[in-house]
Amino acid sequence: MRPLVIIPAFNEAPTIVGVITNIRRHVDADIAVIDDGSEDDTARLAREAGAVVLRHPCNLGIGAAVQTGYVYALRAGYDLVVRQDGDGQHDPSHIGRFIELLASDQADIVVGSRFLAREGYQSTLVRRLGIFILGIVSSLVGRSVTDPTSGYWGVNRRALEVLAKSHPDDYPETEALVVAARSGCRVRELPVIMYARTAGQSSIGGTIYAGFYMLKVVLNLLIGRLRPR
Amino acid sequence: MHLLQVLAVTASSTLLVFVVEAVRRSKLNSRYAILWLGAGVVLLGLSIYRPLLDWVARALGVSYPPSLLFLVAFLFLLSIVLHYSLVISSHRDSIRRLGQAVALLERALEEQRRAPGAT
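The joint structure predicted for all components is written out below.
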């Protein structure tokens, strides 16, 4: 079975074609772009570049886009899914390693961490501070991860089923990790290199948003502990 | 009748008339009118019949009875806003599911068009 690479994208017209061709250069996989209600040509360009395009009628948020990708993967019968960002931040040369780890059943979820190997884009100060605090939170929650906000994920069928059913909303990565870990998925980190985005907007932008991000994630993690399993 | 009482009666009856009229014209779903109607009826009752206001205020230990109106109005507004937060959250969830379903259906349709032999 071929793996599926999913790319959630919101207004990524300047980079999406490059991302798709770059992925093709490194892996033999099907590619699905989830266009989260873009106002630019993201969907058309992605389709012309040969990707399957799933188009949200309006902007539903990155969490919803990722989930749409997972649901599509399940319905189309894929067993291995790797998520890449649409802005070229993720270096697709690692995808092969993700697939290896998942295919040999060493983990249900593989998360690419830019902090395991200290190379490439290490993010802004505010975000690094956030990542540090979230690190503490995630160890409170029982998982120690070095890069809980990383969107570079690989998942197998087991994790797909969990995440397709319930996937967090706005800034989903940290919470998704906790949700999946609580339902018994084995999480592993893999060192990856990330690049600073060259165009477009991060889903985590600005200091106020960084504050909102941390508040929301911490709140969800803490209240999430109160939910029945 | 004090001016304050006239004001309070006018305000609460205006609220009641407005809400009832909005429901009648189907501008306001009755599901979201209940709390407003409750607020209107309780505030009108308290402001029209002074002894009731005084009695409730004394029972609660409120020394200046008219301020009870503010407390009641505040509590109603608080519950209305909280109720709306719940409604907004559930709508957000529904919109998300609908949007995702549309995306997946569109894709399925596209696949069917590409393979005309399939049923």
